Structure prediction request, 198 residues.
Amino acid sequence: MAVVGDVLLWMGLFFIAVAAVGLLRLPDFYSRAHAVSKAETLGLGLLMLGLALHEGASLVSLKLVVVVGFVFLVNPVGVHLLTRTAFRLGVLPWTREAGERTPGTVGGGDD
Amino acid sequence: MTIFVAAAIVIVVLSAISLYRVVAGSSVFDRVLAAGAIGTNAIALLALTGFIFERPDMFVDMAIAYGLLNFIGTVAITKYLEREGEQ
Prediction:
């Protein structure tokens, strides 16, 4: 059981690392939001489940599972809210021709 | 015990990487997004801290509270930005 917990813990760390690298390297806000909302949520879920397997059946592991469920519900919703606001305020997505475009500037690409 | 310390160190390093996006992010949305990601890392770090000090019962409650506050903070900043942008 502890071995499975260790494996889940390192898988969670891997996905959190993927989210951090995506946040650092991806070209514009929307792709960064994609990296954070999915990879970060999955990484935290795997890490918490690994900790719960280390703990065994108790109130603590139940609370860890509750945290996982809450984060799985709430983290993508929060990032979606942020992304929708950015879209409404005119942040344009990255294209290969125009590169990263700052908020408020229109032009480039086929729009 | 040691694996928890190693995992906590990895989480701290990854949060420091995300902190670059908070400082240098090209728009305010990037900053809010990266701050939310660091907050999510902090939930994991709190749970790991509980296991390092062998008192997970206390630290898990703190992790729950931190998750709630992280979401509420992101939503509040988003609503503020939306209202500012409409004016």
In short: Chain A touches chain B through 47 residues (CB under 8 Å). Chain A has one domain: 2-88. The radius of gyration of chain A is 18 Å. The helical segments of chain A are 2-25, 29-55, 59-88.
